[in-house]
Each structure stands twice: as structure tokens, then as C-alpha cells.
């Protein structure tokens, strides 16, 4: 496996993040929102999005992992939800880097909903709809993509390449 071509440049990422922030701000009524960043992949996008939103937020974290060290999901989602912050009666925005099978987002949304928020929205920077195994979509999507393994901007292969400023394919 090796790094392939640039799929989304830093400029693409910045432009789409700004657009997403406008879409989200237009959809979620004025007032504080509680942003939950899904670790670890969404760390980079989550911070950039919070800056772009330019509104009052509180921040929580949930750690989800479904991949082993390979390029295929293990099918089992492990959630650690200790640092989500107060959820009850809050307007919550869940931030994901990528939706693949949908199992992680489904687990995270179910966990958050069980805590009686005022509303739940979700945003994913990358979406691979052809890979979906459960019926769930994010409310806001940065870029839909084909089924190609991606790294960079938080996305990893065996914990490597998260630090790349752009998103690249990772190929045999
Ligand atoms: C990745 C990604 C999403 C999830 C998407 O996380 O960050 O959370 O997989 O896949 P799914 O739709 O098939 O559930 P991963 O488990 O690799 O952990 P990471 O965020 O720490 O990289």
C-alpha cells in the first residue's frame, strides 16, 4: 500500500468547510450548540468546522473505533462516551470525518439520543454511500466519494497519515 493522488486539496477542504458551516448555521437556530467530535478521525475537521461556524459552542468528545489496522471495517463499533459533556436539552451537532458502513454514526447517534437532547444533527466531511450497511445518513455532507480508501486530514491507515494537510487515496 502506498500514498496515491490528492483527492481533496487543502483549498478544497477549506472551501467546503466554510460552505458546510453556512449550511449548518442556516439550519440550526441561533443560540449555543453542543458540538461532539468523534475521535479520533474527526479531530481535524471538527476544529476547523468550529472555527468556521463562528458561533457559541460547547464541545464534547466521543471515541469510536471500528477499524482494526486494515482498510476494512471490523463491523463492531467500540464507543467510549465519557467526555461527551451535558447532552440533555441541548442542540447537539455530531461531527464525523467519514461515513462508510454507517455503523459508527448509528451507534453515536443512538447513544446521544438516549440522553434526551433538544435536537441532534450530524455532519460528515466524507461520505461513501456505496459502502453503507445500515440505513443512516448525515444531515450535512462535505464530499460524497467512490469506494476508495482515503488518508489524511484525520483519516488514518493503521494510525498513520492523519497529519497530512490534504486527503489522498491510499492504494496497493
Ligand atoms: C473511522 C471513521 C468513522 C468510522 C466510519 O473511524 O473515523 O468514525 O470509521 O466507518 P463506519 O461508517 O463503517 O462505521 P475508526 O474506527 O477508524 O477510528 P478513528 O476515528 O480513530 O480513525
Could you outline the blueprint of secondary structure elements for this entry?
Layout: E1 2-8, H1 10-27, E2 33-39, H2 43-53, E3 57-67, E4 73-80, E5 91-99, H3 103-113, E6 119-127, E7 140-144, E8 150-151, E9 167-171
Parallel strand pairs: 2-3, 2-5, 5-6, 6-7
Antiparallel strand pairs: 1-9, 3-4, 8-9
This protein binds 1-O-pyrophosphono-5-O-phosphono-alpha-D-ribofuranose (PRP).
The site of 1-O-pyrophosphono-5-O-phosphono-alpha-D-ribofuranose has 18 residues, from strand 3, strand 5 and helix 3.
List keywords for this structure.
alpha/beta, 3-stranded antiparallel sheet, 172 residues, single chain, 3 helices
Please tell me about this protein's structure:
This protein has 172 residues and is α/β, with parallel strands linked by helices. The chain is 23% helix and 37% strand. It has a six-stranded mixed beta sheet with strand order 4-3-2-5-6-7, sandwiched between helices. Strands 1-9-8 form a three-stranded antiparallel beta sheet. α1 crosses α2 (43-53). The chain starts with a strand and ends with a strand. The protein binds 1-O-pyrophosphono-5-O-phosphono-alpha-D-ribofuranose. 1-O-pyrophosphono-5-O-phosphono-alpha-D-ribofuranose binds next to β3, β5 and α3.
Amino acid at each position: 500500500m502506498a500514498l496515491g493522488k490528492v483527492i481533496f486539496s487543502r483549498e478544497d477542504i477549506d472551501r467546503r468547510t466554510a460552505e458546510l458551516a453556512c449550511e449548518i448555521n442556516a439550519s440550526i437556530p441561533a443560540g449555543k450548540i453542543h458540538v461532539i467530535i468523534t475521535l479520533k478521525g474527526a479531530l481535524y475537521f471538527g476544529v476547523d468546522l468550529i472555527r468556521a461556524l463562528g458561533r457559541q459552542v460547547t464541545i464534547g468528545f466521543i471515541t469510536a473505533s471500528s477499524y482494526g489496522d486494515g482498510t476494512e471495517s471490523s463491523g463492531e463499533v467500540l464507543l467510549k462516551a465519557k467526555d461527551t459533556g451535558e447532552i440533555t436539552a441541548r442542540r447537539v451537532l455530531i461531527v464525523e470525518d467519514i461515513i462508510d458502513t454507517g455503523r459508527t454514526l448509528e451507534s453515536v447517534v443512538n447513544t446521544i439520543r438516549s440522553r434526551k437532547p433538544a435536537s441532534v444533527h450530524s455532519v460528515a466531511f466524507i461520505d461513501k454511500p456505496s459502502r453503507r450497511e445500515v440505513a443512516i445518513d448525515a444531515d450535512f455532507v462535505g464530499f460524497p466519494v467512490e469506494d476508495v480508501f482515503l488518508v489524511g486530514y484525520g483519516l488514518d491507515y493503521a494510525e498513520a497519515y492523519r497529519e497530512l494537510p490534504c486527503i489522498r487515496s491510499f492504494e496497493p
